[in-house]
Structures are given as structure tokens and as C-alpha cells.
Protein: Transglutaminase family protein
Organism: Thiorhodococcus mannitoliphagus
Amino acid sequence: MKYQIQHVTRYEYAEPVSLCHSLAHLKPLQTRTQRCLACSVRVDPWPAVSREHEDFFGNRVSYFSIQQAHKVLEVTAVSEVEIDAQLPLEPDRTPPWENVAQRLYDKGDGLMTDARIFSLPSAQIPLEPTATAYAAVSFTRDRPLLEATLEFMSRIFNEFEYDPTSTTVATPVAEVMAQRRGVCQDFAHIAIAGLRGLGLPARYVSGYLETLPPPGQQKLQGSDASHAWFSVLLPDFGWVDFDPTNDQMPAEQHITTAIGRDFQDVTPVRGIFYGGGDHRLSVAVDVNRVPEAPDEPA
């Protein structure tokens, strides 16, 4: 499956900004099931300095600095991505979750020891006893890792309410646990907090999800949005993704841009600016399938 993604971030300031420095996580990752065929990031006004680097987690990070006065900043990323179908896993045949936690400390197992950082608390996901206790209901003794995680994901989907007005990017995990409502970022943070509390490696995934209009209706431009989910490390296989907002294991409709310990590691656009006063932020995302070329006649 091929997709073209356009992500437009626009800041409008009440007063001129004299200088800004920004980082953007907008270029899709290369993974075993995802290939980024093309990607460009355009900044208006034109930056005085711009460059790209790979961060600690392997994400593609764009840095830019605008050194002229401006009242509007617009960052547009256009990407083309190809997603391969994944082979189905048998959750009940995966190892017991306790064994996975123990393997993090096997010094001869490079994949697992490298993942240990994802079992530790982070800035936005501290160890939260209520989240750990919530996860423990699904992670009973010797239960297969993916079987337990699937049930845990479904419980979040069924027992938490999706409410875009209830939280901000800074809402603590404890508060989301208490009010049982939030958005995709919150649900990913809840899941990761619970898993890390049990000693399991879990990471935050930022990206996009293709949304399809009702039958017979046209898709509205800008109706898609950034999305977030989480992944768990399965020994001898790799990272496996789970989307608690939609109660599904991501497949061909999920596109990954960045991974990290929590939202702070993968913020789509963030930075500092001087001046500006009050500002307004708007984001528009379009995820469109690229039609497959018809087979040529023999």
C-alpha cells in the first residue's frame, strides 16, 4: 500500500517574532515493513539555517532557524510511503511476559539490553502505581506476552472515553487514569506506564492513520491528524505495535514517523521563539492512498 502524506503546521503570532529555533519529527522512518520513498520539508519564511540529523532513537530530525522578523510560520512536510502487509502473529504462542522482562538483563542479548531504556520511567511517563495495577489485571502469571497485551489494549479502548477536550499535551498520566478519558497520546502513555511498571519495555510511536470517509462521501481535505500508539518488544521477532485508541494492531493503514520514550521525544514541531506575544497554532494533515498502476498487458 502506498500513501502520500501532507502535514501542514501553521503558527500565527500577535506580534513579530525576531528569532526562532525549531526541531521537527516529520519524516517517516524506514522500518522492516515501511519504506519512505520521498520526503521534503518546506519552511516559510525561508530559514537562515537548516539541517537534518538522526537522533538517539534513529528518528529523522529536521532543525531550522529563522532569523528574520515574521508573524506567520508555516512548516509543510510532504512524504510518499509504502507499507507492506505484516505476517499475522499467534499471541498465545509468544513467551510468558515475565520471561521477556527477565531477558532485559541478559548481557549476552544485545537486542534486549538495548531496549532496557524503554522499561525505565521518562519525563512524561513516570512510574504510576494506578497504571501498573490497571495493567496487572491482564498480565497474570505466565500469560503469553502478546495475548496479555491485546487484552490490555482492549480494556483501555472499552474503559476510557475518547475526549479531545479533556486533556492537553501536558496532562499527567495519574490525571488521565483518574478521569478515564483523553486522546490517542494519553492512551499510549497509559499503556506504556502500565507496561513499564511491570518491568516490560514499551515505546511511544508517533505517526499517521489513514481515515476513510463514509461510503458515498468525499474525504475532507485536512481531516486526518497525527496519531499515536505504543509498541512492545517481542524477543527474537522485534517491536510489535498496538493502537489502543482503535483497539487494533496497526497494519497497512498506520504510518510511523518517529519512536521514543514518550511524546516529548517525538513532538512533530517544537522550538523556542523570541517575541510574538499570543499565538495560534493550526495543523492540517492529509493521508491519501496512491492508486496502484494497472498491470501492463503481456
Notes: The chain has seven helices and 13 strands. The domain at 2-84+267-289 is CATH 2.60.40.2250 (Immunoglobulin-like).
